[in-house]
Amino acid sequence: MDKFLIKQPRSSSGPFVSSHVVPEAQRETITPSSSNVDCILGVGSLKRDPGGRKPIFEYDSNIRDVVRRHYILMGPYQPKLRVYPKTIFGTSNRQFNPEWFNAPNSAWLEYSIDDDAIFCLCCYLFKNEFESHGNARKSFTQDGFKTWNHGPERIRLHVGEVNSIHNKCLNRMLDFANQRQSIQSSLHKQSEKTKSDYRIRLNASIDVVRFLLRNGLPFRGHDESEDSNYKGLFLNF
Ligand SMILES: [Zn+2]
C-alpha cells in the first residue's frame, strides 16, 4: 500500500494556512494525486497562492482532474497574517478581513498574498464546466477581488442563489472530496476485515492447541499431504 501513498510535506515556512475541505490527518497521508502531479507536471509546479495559478482550462483535459484533486487535498489557501496590506478608499484605509475565512465561506475563500486579493477555490476548479471561459467572469477566479470597502457585499453577490454558478462549483468540489473519502473508507473497512479474519483464525488455532494439550492428544498425523484423508488432529480441526 505504501507505494501508492506518498507523504505530502508540510507547507514550507510560509504563513499558517488552514483547510476546511479535507481533514488535516487525511491531507498528511492520502496524497496519491500529488505524486501524479509531480510526475506529470514537475515537482512543485502547482502554485499554492491563488494569485499566480494557471487557469484550470489551460491544463490538458486528461490531467485536469489530477490538478483538481491536488488543490482539493491542499484545501483553500487561507494565510493568517498579523497585518494585511491597507488600501485607501476615499478617506479611509481598508484591508482584507480574515474573519471572512469563517463560515459560510470557509470551504472556498482564498487570499492571495502575492496579489492582496481574494479568490474562490471551487470556481477556480470547476467554473469552466458551467461557463465557456470566453464568457466567464474572471473576478474571484483569475483576477481576484480586492475592493475591500465592499467585501462582504461582493462575497454575498459572488455566492448568489442556490443554483448560482458558485454553488454548482462548490457542490462539484464537495463531491470530489467525498469520492476520495469514500475510497479511503472502503480501503479502511477492507483492512479492518482482513485484521478481523486473522484474529478469528488465530483464536481458533489457540483453542485447538489448548484442547490437544489438555487431553494429551497428538498434533500431527502420519500423512499431512494434501491428498491425505486424515492429516492429524490439529489440521483436521
Ligand atoms: Zn465561487
Care to give the gist of this entry?
The chain has 237 residues and is mainly alpha-helical. Helix content is 42%, strand content 6%. It contains seven helices and four strands.
Q: Which cofactor or ligand species appear?
A: zinc ion
N-to-C CA distance: 34 Å
Count all strands and give the number: 4
Query: pLDDT under 50 segments (min length 5)?
Result: 1-34
Domain count, please report it: 1
Helix content: 40-55%
Main sheet attributes: strand count, strand direction, barrel closure: 2 strands, antiparallel
Q: Describe the global form.
A: elongated
Rg over CA atoms: 28 Å
The strand order across the widest sheet is 1-2
Describe this structure in words.
The protein has 237 residues and is mainly alpha-helical. It has one domain (2-184). It has helices at 24-29, 32-41, 64-74, 121-130, 151-159, 165-214, 233-236; strands at residues 87-89, 92-94, 109-112, 117-120. It has a two-stranded antiparallel ribbon with strand order 1-2. It has a two-stranded antiparallel ribbon with strand order 3-4. Strand 3 and strand 4 (117-120) form a beta hairpin. Helix 4 (121-130) packs across helix 6 (165-214). 21% of the residues are buried. Bound molecules: zinc ion (ZN). Residues 108, 120, 122-123, 140, 158, 166, 169 line the site of zinc ion. Residues 92-189 form the TTF-type domain.
